[in-house]
């Protein structure tokens, strides 16, 4: 991933915040040297806020072969992405007819060591943490247990994963190479457009500017 100096994270809390807010990504397993292409698994996950990610996948998922060949992977998350039209992205001294559009986004690529979890009790614990994170507060779904027959059957059909982050590449592309005034103008245009992620992107554009806290 290309990361210009003005797009780089200022501190680890930035990418950690992305993994806490956006709990769905792609787990990419390169596998061994004889594999032509990596295996990619779209998946929800939970993050402990420090360096550990947990998830579970069906035991029939094709990713297990690649992870067995090589217990290394990449977890990728893309967040707060928007398309910026040419007229908005063009500098004030340039003609919109010659303007270049762009995309603004956050991207986190976490390199991880992989532990495959097959112990039923340990898998139940991963499931419990996932349910605690994703289920609504008033959910009637009880904590899974190997002592419950229906849960035991479900647990047998999955495998757990514990990912330890060893390195992170993070990119926050929100006009860091633009003048302060232009960033304010772009943020205002996004707020007016009010698309699905325009509000979040405009906040990134304004973050750290004088008078914005």
List low-confidence stretches: none
Q: How many individual β-strands?
A: 7
Q: How far is the first residue's CA from the last residue's CA?
A: 30 Å
Tell me the major beta sheet: 7 strands, antiparallel
Strand residue content: 25-35%
Strands of the biggest beta sheet: in what spatial order?
Answer: 2-1-5-6-7-4-3
Mean pLDDT: 94
Sequence-ordered SSE layout with sheet pairings:
Blueprint: H1 12-21, E1 24-29, E2 39-44, E3 46-47, E4 52-58, H2 63-69, E5 72-84, H3 86-89, E6 102-117, H4 120-134, H5 149-156, E7 158-173, H6 180-193, H7 198-206
Antiparallel strand pairs: 1-2, 1-5, 3-4, 4-7, 5-6, 6-7
Keywords:
7 strands, 31% strand, Pnp Oxidase, Chain A, seven-stranded antiparallel beta sheet, 213 residues, alpha+beta, single chain, 7 helices
Concise structural overview:
The protein is α+β, with helices and mostly antiparallel strands.
